[in-house]
Amino acid sequence: MTVPELFFVSEKPVAELTGADNVLFLGNALGTDTHLWDLALPTLAAKYSVIRFDMPGHGQSPVPTDSYTLEEIADALVAKADELGVESFDYAGVSVSGAIALEIAYKYPTRIKHSVVVCSAPYMGGPEGWAERIAQVSAAGTASLVPAIPARWFSDEFIAKDPAAVKKTLDMVVATDDSSYIKTCEALGNYDARPFMANITVPVLVISGEIDPGSPPAAGAIISETVPGARQVVIPGASHIAVVEAPLEVAKTLVTFLDS
User: Fold this and answer.
1) What are phi and psi of 71, to 5 degrees?
2) For 170-183, what is each residue's pLDDT tens digit?
């Protein structure tokens, strides 16, 4: 099985991570990079040894030559933990990386202490659900997606209040390699956590944006109602990229759960 090469950035010197028991990996949404967590980072880094990563061909991660699955990203994270000498760790991911939260919790229950699904769902519609998006990026690149993204990712109020934050997020999408974006869409099309969710034994938290059209609270509730002992928190007024729109609320919710 191929383990995709990923870019990782640690908030602490790598030498301090060996044997650390407070490591928190953070993953990002489709078409974004490690900076997606910038506004939530101070709260999280004050308590945890935070390691952020870019999906393949996103941000500073190398462009993959082969297709990959979200399970293989989970494998890559555990391989990185092995490299760093980290026995167990917490994990939180947004959207596509939120889906990885379920993959890693299921496959590596002895390595994951807590796993957090942020604005994601247990199933993303299958390959047919991504065909149109793939065709658009193939024809016109990731920049062609930008006009439609704000309405899917942010509330109208936030778009008006903080256009700079919206632009910063959209710029990440434009910078994402087209072929890598497509491969990630394909991985999402092949993703389905529904068959194994009931067998997850790791503590799981679902954070949903109240008005998220892509991964609505109802989708998150499927996770919290199926994974034994899982919980759900809905962020009022937030949409799909709640970690940018309501970073303190997301960070405080994470801290409360991880400390439980």
Assistant:
1) -60, -40
2) 999 999 999 999 99
